[in-house]
Design goal:
The protein is α/β, with parallel strands linked by helices. The chain has twelve helices and 20 strands. The protein is 28% helix and 22% strand. Helix 4 runs parallel beside helix 5 and helix 8 packs parallel to helix 9. The N and C termini lie far apart (60 Å).
Length: 420
């Protein structure tokens, strides 16, 4: 494998100097570009779980995309940046397999449309007499994804109403007076068009079963990016072919039920992954037998994807002066946590690997590329480590959009109790 040759498109040393490390940086222009990429769809709905910072949501809103919420907190985030759930095209929709009590209260108070993933959610709406637009997420019986942990279809997935249970759900919804206005399918991450064709066929079948109340279908998310660079990079997804596949399903449904149907898409990773970078400092360099280790001040408390499912992130390294380093020596990149799994260069299953990287020393800066999705959003306070700051870049201007968490911020909700 060749040594890294793609640099970060910003002044790495400046970011480290002004905001410290570890630090997240997002490029606003890339988010706007990716939203434009999928604008063939009638509605682009951002899966905000991928990156839920309020400033990022405002960028998404200003670029014309709506949002999906999967928790009470995400509903409040959407409301806080001005999304209107009562609009003709709802600014925010709640998608989940359960209602916790706080989410149900918010749905009722703000009339948030609901995309249910279980029959019990329908019953809980009816018990409270909550009347909001209702759509159904269907598990078509199969799934797909780059990791078993991102496969959201099939009988080992908790997500969605099982396709064979849809007739009973439709009958119960009609009995309770809840017309099903839309259908949603998402089987996981990836761009396997054979699987996607199956999903389109399953969507048509489900829509015909529900009938003329269907006004919207959602293609879900899962649009991929290539995390690898150069010769290892996978070709970009054919977005036109992806749209045409779903548009074909939409037209078949329209022909059968006799009226227009809105086609939505719900990307998360595709809209924000390439915009984001994690900047860290190398704090130790040491040899363990035959392996050289670069130990960073960032760990899986910051970027958990490699530890969680062996995800790959491209790495570039910079000297203290900000100059990109070149060269190719095998190294393991790991973090500071008291966990053997705190390694960034590993494969699914926890198998540690080396990466061909420039020779580096303490004080050099290391950048993880394409980290905007499921990076900061999945950060934690494990080992009592503060959350890193987030910075938004636009036209060379850097703006802090979340300050670095202090230790006092972590301790604020805790009170030591007297001995029992």
């Amino acid at each position: 494998m060749a040594s890294p040759c793609e640099s970060a498109p910003f002044d790495v040393a400046r970011v480290a100097r002004e905001f410290g490390t570890p630090c997240w940086l997002y490029r606003q222009s890339m988010i706007e570009r990716r939203i434009a990429d999928v604008s063939r769809f009638d509605v682009v709905r951002f899966a905000q779980k991928a990156c839920s910072n309020l400033s990022i949501l405002k960028v998404v809103k200003d670029a014309g995309a709506m949002v999906d919420a999967v928790s009470a907190g995400e509903i409040v985030r959407a409301l806080r940046v001005g999304y209107d759930p009562r609009a003709k095209v709802p600014g925010v929709v709640y998608t989940a397999d359960i209602f916790d009590r706080e989410a149900l209260d918010l749905v009722e108070k703000h009339q948030v449309p609901v995309n249910i993933g279980s029959a019990d959610m329908l019953e809980q709406l009816a018990e409270r007499g909550i009347r909001v637009p209702l759509t159904v997420r269907i598990n078509p019986g199969f799934g797909h994804g780059h990791s078993r942990k991102v496969n959201t279809g099939g009988d080992l997935s908790k997500h969605g109403v099982w396709h064979e249970d849809l007739p009973a759900l439709v009958a119960r919804a009609n009995e309770l007076g809840y017309p099903i206005s839309g259908l949603h399918m998402h089987i996981g991450s990836g761009s396997d068009f054979a699987h996607l064709s199956q999903v389109g066929d399953a969507m048509v079948k489900a829509a015909l079963l529900v009938g003329s109340s269907v006004r919207t279908i959602s293609a879900g998310g899962g649009l991929p990016i290539s995390y690898r660079k150069g010769d290892e990079a996978t070709p970009p997804i054919d977005l036109l072919a992806y749209f045409e596949l779903w548009d074909c399903a939409r037209k078949m449904i329209e022909k059968k039920i006799g009226h227009a149907v809105t086609l939505e898409v719900e990307p998360g990773r595709y809209l924000v992954a390439e915009s984001g970078y994690l900047v860290a400092e190398i704090r130790a360099v040491k040899n363990q037998g035959k392996n050289r280790f670069y130990l960073l001040d960032a760990g899986f408390t910051d970027l958990v994807r490699p530890s969680f499912y062996g995800a790959y992130h491209y790495i570039s390294i910079y000297g203290k002066d900000g100059a990109m380093l070149v060269g190719s020596e095998p190294a393991v990149v790991a973090g500071p946590l008291c966990e053997s799994g705190d390694v960034f260069t590993q494969e699914e299953g926890g198998f540690v690997t080396t990466r061909d990287l420039p020779e580096a020393q303490v004080g050099d800066l290391l950048v993880f590329h394409d980290a905007g999705a499921y990076g900061a959003a999945m950060s934690s306070n494990y080992n009592s480590r503060p959350l890193a700051p987030e910075v938004l870049e636009r036209g060379g201007e850097l703006r802090l959009i979340r300050r670095r968490q202090s230790l006092e911020d972590i301790f604020r909700l805790e009170e030591p109790c007297a001995s029992l």
